[in-house]
Specification:
The protein is built from 21 helices and 30 strands. The chain is flat and about 150 Å long. It has a 7-stranded antiparallel beta sheet with strand order 13-12-11-16-15-14-22. A 5-stranded antiparallel beta sheet has the order 2-1-5-4-3. Strands 7-6-10-9-8 form a 5-stranded antiparallel beta sheet.
Length: 838
């Protein structure tokens, strides 16, 4: 097979090489012909442009000659009239002359003027003309200095606009004749201008001032004048030195530029788009391309059959060589026809199904050698419709593992559907390989991890029992110390009794010291078993550093990612490595199981300003999980679907590791998810505060004054104590003995009349968490506005998780510290007024 493959490949290569050489020769010939044609057309177009601009310059010179004639004849007429007429007679005669001259020039609105013995005369009466102080203007002095020669100069009118004047004067008599060339005069003069299609024409005076333009650009006049004057400047400073040079116009189109200077110094500029200059070139290109295409089709037709056959053989051989050594069964699937071709099959399947046939018949054969559940899932995941969908989405590796009988034994098999660039868009490869060794190793790992998790869970329960036991053991000597101290401080206590009390206090203190030393010793032993590297860290900075790479990855994939941090203590004692391992697993899951357009929210907040519990939340709007799978989430290697896109499925270990790490650190984890809507993971971890030498004292006195608070506690003494403490600070207190009574009081209260609810957790009838959740669920606008604070003796991580899920805003531990309580309420009120809690 290898020799046949090499011979076929060599023959196809030679055929392709001949085809490429032929095509290259034809392409070069066509390209050379096109370049030659382009060059000839470009030379002819430049010659045409040069002739056109010379023609326009000649037209400008004819117009200038007309102005020269009018001015010289006007000077002669004025000189002859001065000898025999009064100034009034001369003025009338000159006005008559100017009207006739304007009519003869073809522009009856042409403004002509004469200066006669200090008096300004115009063709038509102009208001304010007698007030014009022409004698002190620069242009008038320039005219007299020209000694009778006609000059063209610029002046500014009363509005500040620049005008052009053609004038001549007699220095001996200070008389002069001039023509005021306005914008409308140039427009009238160029009415007959015949430009090429999309051509532009500009006329400048000797100072570079734009006298006239016509251009096919739809922009404001100021921008167009700026662009035109830039062209004039480029010509004067040599940036544009050759006629026919290329420029880019205001529409981004390439143009050829042509220019010519008139005898009086004026500059004519014309630009023409290359698309107009080379109009015939596109037709020539079409002819050349058509010839080339016909020739290429003939060559392709000659070799297509051999190439097709050779590629089919090469593709089949490549598939067989690449996969035969790895897979025990290979099937080529024609997705369009719904058929299969068995490239390689197991002995058992060769007896059940033919080598070629219908796709569904093949799937019936597969289903006959596995159990019913696997067969049903296999038919669904590997249906012809689903495989076509995978191919259209270019999911290149889809599959999963299942257990089946092989030669009488249960064996693990991996089944995968593969698409590749070497195959057509309507083809795919279905492959099978044994993975029994890898799967058995994975099962062993699963058992080890399950054992470790069980040990960790047992350790967690043991710790809780231990602390409960130690709490009871420590209360006994503590009760003795407090009681004996109270008796010793009595004024009526005899001296001998006081000494006896002090000895008993000392004895009980030593007993408590020994108990504490035992606790520390146990803690050291447990740290040796499960070492946690505690050191001073900046929790805000470390959290940001962990989350930021995942945020950048999510944004690059078209997802939204928001980071929220709300903590009062940045510096804590903790293990950065363990926190990083926990967050990396949670964040990588969020990125993996969300699609483009989904969103992720990552939050870190403190349970309360003085709390050592920090709550980490990772929430997404991705594919989510079914409710049935959630109990298995922390089981090693657990996956919701047996078959799936392996680029979008994990190994099933991440959440098991997270659970183990959270348990080691004495924290809690809670996961809620809905298939198709997203997942929310809440992790509570304790971080010890960093001891400081000095503590800044912040005064919050008065921040809770005049607030309306609902105090909920089933213990009457605790309820009375809390109510009295709050009343001393100016709070209006409403007491409630359990969660149900609190719910009813809140329902009956006026909207927004209750500012804060202080809620105990463990109460009869309805506990604090149930009461808080019921209040939040009420259909009234202040249900989510009111602040609810848990004040309870339950201070473990799982208790904090419960309060968060119930919708409480903070979690404080008993006994109540009024400074901490005021600081917490002040912070929550500030957040509410800023819109954070809305």
């Amino acid at each position: 097979m290898d020799r046949f493959h090499e011979v076929t490949k060599k023959r196809i290569w030679n055929d392709n090489l001949r085809t490429l050489i032929t095509l290259a020769v034809v392409f070069v010939l066509v390209l050379v012909s096109m370049l030659g044609t382009y060059k000839v057309l470009l030379i002819n177009s430049r010659k045409m442009g040069h002739e056109l601009i010379q023609s326009y310059a000649s037209d400008e010179e004819r117009s200038i000659a007309v102005y020269n004639t009018i001015i010289k004849m006007g000077m002669s007429s004025m000189e002859s009239s001065e000898e025999s007429g009064s100034p009034e007679e001369i003025s009338i005669k000159m006005q008559d002359f100017f009207k006739k001259a304007a009519d003869a020039s073809g522009n009856p609105d042409l403004q002509c003027f004469a200066i006669i013995k200090g008096r300004l005369v115009s063709t038509e009466p102009i208001e304010g003309l007698d007030k014009y102080d022409f004698e002190n203007t620069g242009w008038y002095r320039n005219v007299l200095a020209a000694d009778g020669q006609v000059i063209f100069t610029g002046i500014n009118d009363e509005s500040g606009a620049k005008l052009t004047v053609a004038a001549a004067g007699e220095p001996d008599t200070d008389c002069a004749v001039f023509i005021n060339l306005r914008k409308q005069d140039f427009i009238s003069e160029h009415n007959g201008l015949n430009l090429p299609e999309k051509g532009a024409y500009y006329l400048f005076d000797t100072d570079g001032h734009l006298l006239y333009y016509t251009a096919p650009f739809e922009i404001d006049e100021a921008s167009l004048e700026e662009y035109a004057m830039g062209l004039c400047a480029d010509i004067h400073n040599g940036k544009i030195s050759n006629e026919g040079d290329d420029i880019i116009d205001l529409n981004g189109e390439v143009r050829g530029i042509y220019y010519n200077q008139v005898n009086n110094g004026w500059l004519c500029i014309m630009t023409i788009p290359h698309s107009v200059l080379l109009t015939g070139f596109n037709n020539i290109i079409i002819i050349y391309v058509s010839v080339f295409a016909v020739f290429m089709l003939i060559i392709i037709f000659m070799f297509v059959h051999d190439i097709h056959m050779g590629q089919t053989i090469i593709r089949t051989g490549a598939i067989i060589r690449a996969l035969c050594n790895t897979y025990y069964a290979i099937y080529r699937i024609d997705l369009k026809k719904g058929t299969y071709d068995m490239i390689k099959g197991s002995d058992e399947m060769q007896k059940l199904i033919p080598r070629k046939g219908e796709f569904n018949a093949m799937m019936d054969g597969f289903a006959s050698v596995v159990d019913e559940d696997t067969a049903a899932e296999m038919r669904s995941s590997f249906s012809l419709e689903h495989l076509r969908e995978l191919a259209s989405k270019q999911i290149k590796d889809f599959g999963g593992d299942f257990l089946r009988k092989m030669n009488g034994d249960d064996k693990w098999v991996n089944m995968a559907f593969i698409i590749d660039e070497s195959l057509t868009k309507e083809e795919g490869i279905l492959v099978f390989r044994q993975i029994d060794t890898e799967k058995q190793q994975q099962i062993r790992h699963t058992k080890l991890l399950e054992s470790a998790l069980a040990s960790a869970d047992a350790s967690e329960k043991s710790q809780k029992y231990f602390f409960s036991k130690m709490s009871h053991e420590m209360r006994t000597p503590l009760n003795i110390i407090l009681g004996m101290n109270e008796l010793a401080m009595s004024p009526d206590c005899p001296e001998n009794k006081r000494l006896d009390y002090l000895k008993k206090i000392e004895y009980s203190g030593k007993d408590m010291l020994g108990l504490i030393n035992n606790i520390l010793e146990i803690s050291r032993i447990e740290d040796g078993l499960m070492p946690i590297d505690r050191k001073v860290i900046n929790l805000r900075e470390e959290f940001t550093n962990i989350v930021q790479p995942f945020r950048e990855q999510a944004v690059a994939q078209g997802k939204r990612c928001e980071i929220k941090i709300d903590i009062s203590k940045d510096m804590v004692m903790g293990d950065v490595l363990k926190l990083s391992q926990i967050m990396n697993n949670l964040l990588s899951n969020a990125v993996r199981f969300t699609r483009s357009g989904d969103s992720m929210t990552v939050t870190m907040r403190q349970a309360a300003p003085d709390s050592s519990n920090y709550i980490f939340t990772v929430e997404d709007t991705g594919i989510g999980m079914s409710e049935a799978f959630l109990p298995k989430l922390f089981t090693p290697y657990s996956q919701e679907n047996r078959f799936g896109n392996r680029s979008e499925t994990g190994g099933g270990l991440g959440m098991a590791i997270v659970k183990s790490l959270v348990t080691q650190k004495g924290g809690q984890i809670d996961v809620s998810s809905t298939a198709g809507k997203g997942t929310k993971v809440v992790v509570t971890l304790p971080f010890a505060p960093v001891p400081t030498e000095e503590t800044a004292v912040q005064t919050n006195d008065g921040c809770i004054k005049n607030l309306n608070m609902l105090v909920v506690d089933d213990n009457e003494l605790n309820r009375e104590l809390m109510s009295d403490l709050l009343t001393e600070h100016g709070v209006k207190v409403t007491p409630a003995c359990d969660g149900k009574e609190a719910l009813e009081i809140f329902k009956r209260s006026e909207l927004f009349s209750c500012d804060v609810i202080i809620m105990d957790m463990q109460m009869p009838v309805m506990d604090g968490c149930a009461s808080a959740a019921a209040i939040r669920a009420l259909d009234r606008p202040d249900a989510n506005w009111v602040i609810i604070i848990a004040l309870t003796a339950n201070s473990f991580s799982e208790d904090v998780i419960r309060t968060v899920k119930a919708g409480m805003n903070a979690h404080l531990a008993k006994p109540a510290d009024m400074k901490v309580l005021q600081e917490t309420i002040k912070k929550l009120l500030s957040e509410r007024s800023g819109g954070i809690m809305q």
